[in-house]
Design brief:
Calcineurin-like_PHP, alpha/beta, 3',5'-cyclic AMP phosphodiesterase CpdA, six-stranded mixed beta sheet, 315 residues, Purple Acid Phosphatase, chain A, domain 2
């Protein structure tokens, strides 16, 4: 009888152990990057900028985890356009699922800007005016914004996002940002809002302002836009779009504002003996601000290494 009771007791313990383990959460692996900036995090503001994700889910996750490992207390993430490869419901769902799955590794503030691919559906050759409105509506639902251009203040620093109001249509081509006179007037007002001389103002536009070596001119009313920005040398504008490698000269500080290229998450375009090649690099930016001084670092997420570091001193 005692033997039977002992056997029953052992079986009960085993069942209890299995039950507890089934419902207990296993400890999560701690994400720490070899590029970790330290435990003091004494910057006044820190944020990252990712451009051209193009629904590349594995690269996106790789970037999110590495950025969290670098600084888990980061204030914001800026997705600087072409986050989706096509402005379809399917592509947005992939990105939304990725953001949701990695929520614990993301900052609370995520700014989602529009690019040119948000106006794409590869089944359509050219967008009708109704198509354009549908693409804009999908972007606004994804971003939580009211317009394709928007702004917010983070820790008393101004973040201003510009965005194309048309794309891949009879009235706007598939590459340029179509920026209206209304948006330019809005920009003038926002740049003057709480302006303090020398204090950085962060401006974002997916498309490039200046003509590239490949001949890309990325913005309608580009000269007028540059004229407006020139009145504020403390502006740092972040562009994506060209997929240029961060190993090139990507910070131009005397325009008189500063122009920064963000790199691309999905792939980088390289030119080899005049031939264009798409290389599956995964690159982006990490930014720290202390007072009026800004430190910009380029990251290779695959190699887990810094590509460059540049200081932009308050003007």
């Amino acid at each position: 009888m005692k033997r039977i009771i002992s056997i029953i007791a052992v079986i009960a313990v085993v069942i209890l152990y299995i039950g507890i383990n089934k419902y207990m959460k296993k400890p999560e692996a701690v994400v720490v990057s070899s590029l970790r900036v330290g435990d003091s995090y004494n910057a006044d503001l820190s944020f990252s900028v990712l451009g051209d994700v193009h629904t590349k889910d594995d690269h996106f996750k790789e970037a999110i985890l590495e950025l969290y490992g670098i600084n888990p207390k980061m204030d914001a993430l800026v997705l600087n356009g072409d986050t989706v490869d096509e402005g379809t419901i399917k592509d947005y769902e992939i990105i939304k699922n990725s953001l949701n799955k990695n929520k614990k590794h993301l900052p609370k503030t995520i700014i989602k800007n529009i690019g040119n691919h948000e106006f794409f559906d590869y089944k359509k050759e050219i967008n009708s005016p109704e198509d354009v409105l549908v693409f804009i509506k999908r972007y606004l639902e994804f971003s939580g914004e009211n317009k394709v251009y928007h702004d917010r203040w983070i820790k008393d620093y101004h973040f201003i996002s510009l965005g194309s109001e048309d794309g891949n249509s009879k009235t706007a081509n598939s590459v340029k940002a179509h920026i209206s006179k209304e948006q330019l007037q809005w920009l003038k007002e926002k740049l003057s809002e709480k302006h303090i001389k020398g204090k950085p103002i962060f401006v974002f536009l997916h498309q490039n302002l200046n003509k590239t070596s490949g001949g890309w001119v990325g913005t309608d009313h580009g000269e007028e836009l540059k004229k407006i920005l020139s009145q504020y040398p403390e502006v740092i504008i972040f562009n994506s779009h060209t997929h240029q490698s961060l190993k090139h000269n990507n910070v131009k500080p005397n325009e008189p504002y500063t122009v920064v290229h963000t790199g691309a998450v999905k792939y980088t375009i390289l030119f080899n003996e005049g031939k264009m090649e798409r290389v599956p690099y995964n690159q982006g930016l990490y930014v720290e601000v202390k007072g009026n001084n800004v430190t910009i670092k380029g990251i290779d997420f695959k190699e887990k290494s810094w590509i460059f570091k540049q200081e932009v001193v308050g003007k």
